[in-house]
Amino acid sequence: MTNNSEIFNQIVDKRRAYREFDTNFDLPESVVKNSLERAIKSPSSSNMQLWEFYRIKSKESIKEVARLCLNQLGAITASEIVIFVARPDLWKERQAVHLKRLEKVETKNIKNKLFGSSELSYFSTVIPQFYNLSFPCLRDLVKRIYVWNKSRKAPFMQDVYSKHIPVVTQKSTALAAQTFMLSIVAEGYDSLPMEGLDSKRIKKFLKLPKTAEINMAIAVGKGKPEGLRGTRFRLPYDDVVFDI
Ligand SMILES: Cc1cc2nc3c(=O)[nH]c(=O)nc-3n(C[C@H](O)[C@H](O)[C@H](O)COP(=O)(O)O)c2cc1C
Questions:
Q1: Is the pTM here over 0.90, yes or no?
Q2: How far is the CA of 13 from the centre of ligand 1 (A)?
Q3: What are the residue ranges spanned by the domains of the chain?
Q4: Average pLDDT of each block of 10 consecutive residues along the chain (244 residues)?
């Protein structure tokens, strides 16, 4: 094993869901900042980065968010809570950033392998076809005919309907969440991912629109040994991995 894989093993093994943190520990500002900077480097579908990260730092805000996380002890004792939000509704803003970036001559002609078009035409024409949610029934019907026709003779992307938009954005946001949690361990601290929360009230607290989706809240702090629920349990490798 190389040195890097040993280090990575240690990080993966040390990342556990801590249900209680030591409130006597001070969390340096750099721990969450560095980890969010790493999380932002996570891959995202079409590199659209339809995510946002809300840092809950003050004692008062943590108390309120912990209440909205159903008073889970991990949230109550956290030094900081970060809320990972999927923002499919921001697709136009992200598209505009990409189009501006692609105006540069050197990137104009790079072909996008998936659609055989340039990056520029991918972001100007394909992206709106996927993310535009006006008249979803009509759009889905047109897409169904298009996809049926395209996939008759060759494989073609199937998960392109309005119901897939939340899945796509949540997927990418969760990848950022995992990068974040591994980084927190690398920084010497611990975390608890939480979906046991009142997403409606959290959105209201963060002043987010209905179209935003709470991916998960992640409590961060110094984990207490008693914050672990026993040893890690996983299904055996052969039960979940299939060689084809
Ligand atoms: C998306 C997601 C949501 C979770 N939500 C909660 C939660 O609300 N409360 C909790 O105590 N644990 C929560 N967990 C933690 C899991 O229960 C935990 O990761 C799992 O039992 C495996 O334990 P380990 O992370 O220590 O290996 C969540 C995990 C994930 C990935």
A1: yes
A2: 15
A3: 19-86+134-226
A4: 91 98 95 98 98 98 98 98 98 96 66 65 93 91 93 93 95 98 98 98 98 98 97 98 98
